[in-house]
Design goal:
This protein is of the alpha+beta class and 479 residues long. It folds into 3 domains: 96 residues, Rossmann fold (3-Layer(aba) Sandwich); 78 residues, 2-Layer Sandwich (Dna Ligase, domain 1); 234 residues, 2-Layer Sandwich (D-amino Acid Aminotransferase, Chain A, domain 1), CATH 3.30.470. Helices cover 33% and strands 26% of the residues. The protein contains 14 helices and 24 strands. The strands form 5 sheets. Strands 10, 11, 14, 15, 16, 17, 19, 22 and 24 form a 9-stranded antiparallel sheet that branches. β15 and β16 form a beta hairpin. α1 packs parallel to α2 and α3 crosses α5. The longest helix has 23 residues. It is globular.
Length: 479
C-alpha cells in the first residue's frame, strides 16, 4: 500500500512514524517544499521517497500524485488545505484525508468560526467584533476595555495579544498599546494575505486554562483523542511572543490534572455540534481532523478559543508513545465513511511531554534564524525513551542539516508522570548541538511541578466561578 503525506514539518514526521508502526507496512511518500531529514529517513526505509519542490502548489502535487498513484493521501498543514490541495486531489479521484477549502474556513477565518458558533447557538462562544477597516477597529479599541486582539485570519500563531486593564493608572498607556498592535496586525501580518476581507478580530478577554482536544471524523462519527495542553509562548512561565507551540503535555490517560471528565465530555459535545453546523453551512461532509483549542473560563466553562482543521503541532507528537490503534486504519475508515467501526485505544499508564527547540530570532525575526547548521545525537535521545521529530530543518545538497528559521525539531518523551517526561525532554534537548555557535532555546518549565501547580490553581478558580454562574442560569445570558 502507498501513502503520500503532503507537508514537511514535525506534524508530518509524527504522522509518518505512526504510519510506519502500522501492520499494513505502507510505502510512505512525502510531497514537500524541502527535504525534512526525519521524513526522508522514514520514506526511504519504507520503500517510498521524498519529492520536494520549493514552489509546491496544488497542480504540482496532483502531478506527483499521478506519478506515485497512492492509495491514500494525507494533507497535513493548514495552508495547503486553505489553497485547495484536498479539493483538487479529490476531484481527480484520489482518497484524501484532510479538510477541503470550504471546511477549512473554520480555521482560516476566525471571524467565520465565531459567526458559525453564534448563528447555530453553539456553547463555548464569546463576545467578539470583527473589522475590515482599520479606522473602524481603532475607534472600537478606543472605546473598549479588556480585550484580545487577533488577526482575523490564521497566521501561524502570530499576532495574538492580550493587554489587561487591571491598573487604572495605566489605562491610557494600555489603550495606546492596543492601538499600536492593531496597526501592526494590519501592516505586518494581514498585509500578506489576500484571501480574506476581515483584518482584525477583537474578543473579550477570558480568564482560565487552555487545552486542546483533537478529533478524527468522517462527517458522521467523531472520535476524540486525549486532552493535550499546548504552550504557545516563546519563553518560560508563559512570557514572550506567541509561537506555533514550544511544547505540550498529556496524560496519564485521557485527562490532564486540571481538566475534569465532565469538562472533557462537554468539550467533545461542543466539537460535535460544531462539525454538524459546519457541514450544514458548507454542504460538505468533513473527512479529517478537527482540533479545538479551548479554555476553562470563569465566564462560560469550556470555551472555544480557535479551531484547527488538522492535527495540532506539537500536540500530535504526544500521540507517538501512547496511540495503540493502527493510525492507517483510522485514516482509511474515515476516508471510506466507516469510522463507526473504529475505536481509539491509548496507553493510559504513561504521560507524555513534547518540547520544541528553536534558533534565536524565532518567532519575530526568522531571517536571522535561518541556515544555521545543527547536529542531533538521536541515539542518546532514543536511549532516554524519546522520539526525535524534525520540523524547521532541511538537508542541503551537501548533506548538511540547516535551519529554516522556524522551530528546528521536537522531542516527544514519556514517563510515569508529566514531570518525569518533562525531565527526560530537557535531557534529550541537550543532545542538539549548534555547529556555528548560534544560540538555540527551549522551555525547561513545560511539564514542571511549578507550572502544573499554577494550571491546577487557575483551573480550580475558574471552575468555582463558572459553576456558580451555571447554577444561577447566568451563562450566555448576554450573548
Amino acid at each position: 500500500m502507498k501513502v503520500a503525506i503532503i507537508g514537511e514539518g514535525a506534524r508530518e514526521h509524527a504522522i509518518a512514524l505512526m504510519l510506519q508502526q502500522s501492520s499494513r507496512d505502507p510505502k510512505i511518500y512525502n510531497i514537500a517544499t524541502y527535504r525534512n531529514p526525519g521524513l526522508l529517513r522514514v520514506a526511504e526505509r519504507s520503500g517510498g521517497k521524498v519529492i520536494a519542490y520549493r514552489d509546491l502548489n496544488p497542480e504540482i502535487a496532483l502531478h506527483i500524485a499521478n506519478e506515485i498513484s497512492p492509495d491514500l493521501i494525507i494533507v497535513g498543514p493548514e495552508e495547503y488545505q486553505f489553497k485547495g490541495y484536498v479539493d483538487l486531489l479529490k476531484s481527480h479521484g484520489f482518497p484524501v484525508f484532510g479538510a477541503t477549502r470550504a471546511l477549512a474556513e473554520i480555521e482560516k477565518s476566525k471571524v467565520y468560526m465565531r459567526s458559525l458558533m453564534e448563528r447555530y447557538r453553539i456553547p463555548g462562544r464569546v463576545r467578539y467584533s470583527a473589522f475590515k477597516d482599520l479606522d473602524e477597529a481603532l475607534d472600537h479599541i478606543k472605546r473598549s476595555g479588556d480585550v484580545v486582539l487577533k488577526p482575523a485570519r490564521q497566521a501561524g500563531g502570530k499576532g495574538v495579544k492580550v493587554i489587561s486593564d487591571f491598573q487604572e493608572y495605566l489605562k491610557e498607556s494600555k489603550r495606546e498599546a492596543r492601538i499600536e498592535h492593531a496597526r501592526e496586525i494590519v501592516a505586518n501580518i494581514m498585509a500578506s494575505y489576500r484571501d480574506i476581507d476581515y483584518k482584525i478580530l477583537i474578543e473579550e478577554r477570558l480568564e482560565g486554562v487552555e487545552y486542546t482536544i483533537m478529533t478524527i471524523t468522517d462527517g458522521s462519527t467523531v472520535l476524540p483523542l486525549p486532552v493535550i495542553q499546548d504552550h504557545p509562548h516563546a519563553f518560560e512561565m508563559d512570557l514572550g511572543p506567541e509561537t506555533g507551540g514550544m511544547g505540550s503535555i498529556q496524560g496519564p490517560g485521557y485527562l490532564l490534572p486540571f481538566i475534569t471528565s465532565a469538562e472533557y465530555e462537554e468539550s467533545i459535545s461542543i466539537i460535535r455540534k460544531t462539525i454538524d453546523a459546519l457541514q450544514k453551512d458548507v454542504g460538505e461532509l468533513y473527512t479529517g481532523v478537527l482540533s479545538a483549542q479551548m479554555m476553562i473560563t470563569s465566564q462560560y466553562g469550556p470555551t472555544v478559543i480557535e479551531y484547527y482543521s488538522r492535527f495540532g503541532d506539537p500536540e500530535v507528537s504526544n500521540l507517538l508513545p501512547i496511540l495503540e490503534t493502527d493510525i492507517l486504519e483510522l485514516f482509511e475508515y474515515a476516508v471510506d465513511r466507516k469510522l463507526s467501526k473504529a475505536k481509539i485505544e491509548i496507553r493510559e499508564d504513561i504521560a507524555t511531554v513534547v518540547k520544541a527547540i528553536a534558533p534565536r530570532g524565532y518567532p519575530g525575526n526568522r531571517s536571522i534564524a535561518t541556515d544555521h547548521p545543527i547536529k542531533v545525537d538521536e541515539k542518546e535521545i532514543d536511549r532516554l525513551g524519546c522520539y526525535t521529530l524534525y520540523s524547521g530543518v532541511y538537508i542541503d545538497d551537501s548533506g548538511n542539516m540547516l535551519t529554516t528559521g522556524s522551530r528546528a525539531l521536537e522531542v516527544s518523551c514519556y514517563g510515569d508522570s508529566i514531570e518525569e517526561a518533562s525531565q527526560k525532554a530537557n535531557l534529550a534537548l541537550n543532545h542538539v548541538e549548534s555547529l556555528d555557535g548560534w544560540r538555540f532555546f527551549y522551555r525547561r518549565d513545560i511539564g514542571s511541578k511549578t507550572l502544573l501547580s499554577k494550571r491546577i490553581e487557575q483551573a480550580e478558580l475558574a471552575r468555582k466561578v463558572y459553576r456558580y454562574r451555571r447554577e444561577n442560569d447566568l451563562l450566555y445570558r448576554s450573548l
